Amino acid sequence: MQSFFICGGNKLMGELEVQTSKNAVLPILAGCILCDKDVVLHKFPKFEDTLTMLKILESLGARTYIYENDVKIECESITNHEIPVDLASKIRSSIFSLGAILSRFKKAKVPYPGGCAIGARPIDLHIKGLKQLGAKIIDKHGFLYCDGSNMKSGVVNIDFPSVGATENIILASVFLKGRTKIINCAKEPEIVDLANFLNSMGAKIHGAGDSIIEIEGVEKLDGGEYTPITDRIIAGTYILATLICGGDVTLKNINTEHIQSLMHNLKNNCCKMIVKGDTLRVVANKRPKAISKIETQPYPGFPTDLQPQIMSMLSIARGTSVVVENLFESRFKHVGELKKLGADILVNDKTAIIKGKSMLYGANVTCQDLRGGAGLVLAGLVAKGYTTVDDVFHIDRGYYHMEKDLQQLGANIERITKA
Ligand code: EPZ
């Protein structure tokens, strides 16, 4: 088992380049299934989840080659329409491939997806949306057997602005003759990036980033090169780490437009944030203040993927804060672990009340999911004494060697292997 061993108390100082976005690259990799020719993605992040998605493409017949920072995907050899269960069960984004496989083959056999255990993670909105386009889907023994031979363009209403369902329906609509209109779409920057990628390959997608997206069907997509956006959640994680530890950190290759909600909530909170083009300098030299209420919402609201990390900050803030988790029904699993470090948090259903403490104390804690694990690391960086964070494989799914990034900023953290 791999763990992080942390000695708390160091300030964070220095510069860091923000990695490419996991949640942009995953649907873009699914989009490669629609391409006839080779695709090269630059600054490819080698997270566990993106490597698993590459294996899914290989299971469909693609050949993939990882160079220094790039990956090349040979798409013309994609001939299989079934995803193996061992790969699909590892990541949520396997379900995004369904729409793409239906577009290419007009049929698909896809297992139920995996992903962080932060709730039931149903896929009813994906299925309802694809059925509104005429897909026939039989859900049997954990597999979806899909017949897309009668799919047609049309209007799709999504009951809730689901990120994955929006991406899936876009991918299923690219080749449908005529115009498809998707209503009540998610507006996340990763959806805009998927549309930009597909349009750069020849698709005609309009309105990504708004709640209504229109797709004009095209015959085929070529291939080409693309550089996905950087990861707003990783950026937010390190901004919060700087507030928790104190220090002076400059993040490079960041799009501050994508983290407006976090920056709004941190304004006047014992830190200075100086934006210069695609860099953000965070200077924090006082104990953070409590925030009366943080409610997670679909974009552009406060991101659920930063909820555990800001909870760690609020655990040492001056005063009492409230965090409401509206997106996932069991995304407070890190609370029990934070309490082992001395945090004072009371949870009632989807609301957590956090009484800030002047000090947390090192302990042995265990990651329960990706972003909860990142939150535990941030708390360990400020806790007095030694903290071990176990099961960091969760963190490796969405941060490439998080410990190296934090070491570069002066944190006393190392990756260890426990028997
Ligand atoms: C994406 O998951 C992200 N994952 C998640 O990031 C992120 O937390 C989430 O969007 C919300 O922003 C990827 O992009 C790979 P949703 P997704 O569909 O698409 C409900 C991380 O840490 N829902 O927007 O699965 C669902 O239960 C991960 O990087 C249905 O009810 O999220 C949830 O309550 C964690 N039926 C809400 O919608 C469905 O068919 C939002 O989920 C689909 C979703």
Number of helices: 14
- Range of helix content: 25-40%
Q: Can you identify the CATH superfamily of the largest domain?
A: Enolpyruvate transferase domain
Sheet with the most strands: spatial strand order: 21-22-1-23
Walkthrough of the structure:
The protein has 419 residues and is of the alpha+beta class. It folds into 2 domains: 2-19 and 230-417, Enolpyruvate transferase domain (UDP-n-acetylglucosamine1-carboxyvinyl-transferase, Chain), CATH 3.65.10.10; 22-226, Alpha-beta prism (UDP-n-acetylglucosamine1-carboxyvinyl-transferase, Chain). It has 14 helices and 23 strands. The protein has helices spanning 22-31, 48-59, 85-88, 96-105, 124-132, 163-173, 189-200, 232-245, 260-266, 307-314, 333-340, 370-382, 393-396, 402-408, and strands at 2-7, 12-17, 39-41, 63-66, 71-74, 107-111, 136-140, 143-147, 155-157, 179-183, 204-206, 212-216, 224-226, 247-252, 271-276, 279-284, 293-295, 320-324, 344-348, 351-355, 364-366, 386-390, 412-417. The strands form 6 sheets. A 4-stranded mixed β-sheet has the order 21-22-1-23, with helices on one face. A 4-stranded mixed β-sheet has the order 2-14-16-15. A hairpin with a 2-residue loop joins β7 and β8. α8 runs parallel beside α12. It is globular, with a radius of gyration of 21 Å. The mean pLDDT is 96. Ligand EPZ binds at residues 22-23, 26, 92-93, 116, 119, 121-126, 160, 162-165, 186, 304-305, 327-328, 370-371, 398.
